[in-house]
Amino acid sequence: MSATEQAGTLHDIMDYIKPVSGFFGEHPLAIAAMVLLVTIIVASLAVVIVARVAGRIARQTRFHWDDQLIAALRRPVFWTLLLIGLRMSLLPLRPSQIVSNVFESVVASILIILWSLFLLRLIRILLRAFSASAGEHSLVRRQTLPLFENLGFIIVIVVMIYMVFRSWNIDMTAWLASAGIAGIAIGFAAKDTLANLFSGVFILADTPYKIGDYVVLDSGERGLVTHIGIRSTRLLTRDDVEITIPNAIMGNTRITNESGGPHEKYRLRVKVGVAYGSDIDQVKQILQHIAMTEPMVCTDPEPRVRFRTFGGSSLDIELLCWVDNPELRGRVLDVLNTTIYKRFNEEGIEIPYSKHDIFIKEMPHGNQHE
User: Fold this and answer.
1) Which of 169, 193, 204, 366 lies 20 to 30 Å from 75, alpha-carbon distance?
2) What's the rounded Cα separation, in Å, for the pair 232 and 197?
3) Fold assignment, 171-261
4) What fold is seen in the domain 266-347?
């Protein structure tokens, strides 16, 4: 603030407090103290108004995040008004231009940091409110919440640092150029890490799978998704072995999500062959009954039996049934195969298998020696 602007502001303050300033004999220190006292009173009243009036309005809504917002707003409002009053109280003392500029830079820096912290808290409150009410396919949800919180933190901190430097009239051009060169060097050095990072962001946003899903990769790995991070995804196999796969690989491979679709149920295909001449209706009835009486097999959708084709040595039939979770596939398939084999033996239904008959046309004759 220039000397002319300070004189004008001081004149306005003196006119405003003229009825009271006579009591102090227009002493600069007394006027400064009076301005600071009035500022403290005004700031305290503003906080009370924010806490009571705005808080009462917030309590009438069905949201909870607005109550947290009002509570977070009290401190920056109070300190902003107090610092403004402190700056005004300095004017009657007529400080030098250097002191005035330094004091303004200090006040501006404190305000920038104060409101940046409030903005960080506001972003955290809003993101958590959105993630709590978000659907499964929403961009902001529990799994992606740390990503957006960290992204918001980085943006706010970078802008805050830039504005603090600007408040001290420091040119940031050279700093930004150096940061750009350093960023390029770091990007080349950590390209694999960055590839995993961006792939993790796309996986969290696109959600081809989620925690708790059973997935099968092109390479043959199959397991339960236990963790989806920014850098990697973890699978727990049926052997209780945890596999950590970089997200860059997960983002560029074909993934079969066995838990995807309208529900988590998984369909089993039990293939069995019976000999030609078997009663096909009896075979279908037995297979249907076995599936219906197995507790681990779902009744909705209902199991079904299909006569697929005439094989080379058997009638190929397929039992289709569902289980509640892909994890049960191996266990239920073992139970069904065992029950089918025992039941077919009881009913005299032959399960053909490959047979090879060897006919010896002529016995070899050994060499005869005279």
Assistant:
1) 169
2) 8
3) SH3 type barrels. (2.30.30)
4) Alpha-Beta Plaits (3.30.70)
In the numeric block, the tokens 């906080």 are attached to 47
Question: How far does Cα 55 stand from its chain's mean position?
Answer: 31
Break the chain into its structural domains and give their ranges: 3-169, 171-261, 266-347
Average pLDDT for residues 270-289, to the nearest whole number?
A: 95
Distance (Å, whole) CA 359 – CA 349? 28
Q: Token pair for residue 272?
A: 């069995």
The whole-angstrom separation of Cα 98 and Cα 77 is 28
| Residue 139 amino acid letter | L
Q: Is pLDDT above 60 for 31?
A: yes
What is the structure's pLDDT at 3? Answer: 47
Comparing C-alpha atoms, which of 267, 288, 295, 279 is closest to residue 340? Answer: 288
What percent of the chain clears pLDDT 70, i.e. is strictly above it? 85
pLDDT at 10: 45
Q: Tell me what pLDDT residue 145 has.
A: 76
**Angle at alpha carbon of residue 192, lines to 186 and 194, rounded to 5°:** 60
pLDDT tens for each residue of 94-143:
777 787 888 889 989 999 999 999 999 999 888 888 887 766 556 677 76
Say if strands 304-310 and 255-257 run parallel, antiparallel, or are unpaired: unpaired
Q: Which residue has the higher pLDDT, 295 or 92?
A: 295
SS3 assignment, position 354: coil
How far is residue 261 from each of residues 61, 209, 270, measured CA to CA in Å?
A: 37, 11, 21
Q: Which pLDDT score is estimated for 149?
A: 81
- pLDDT over 80 at 5, yes or no: no
How far apart are the C-alpha atoms of 73 and 67, rounded to whole Å?
10
Q: How far is CA 307 from CA 93, 282, 298, in A?
A: 100, 12, 21
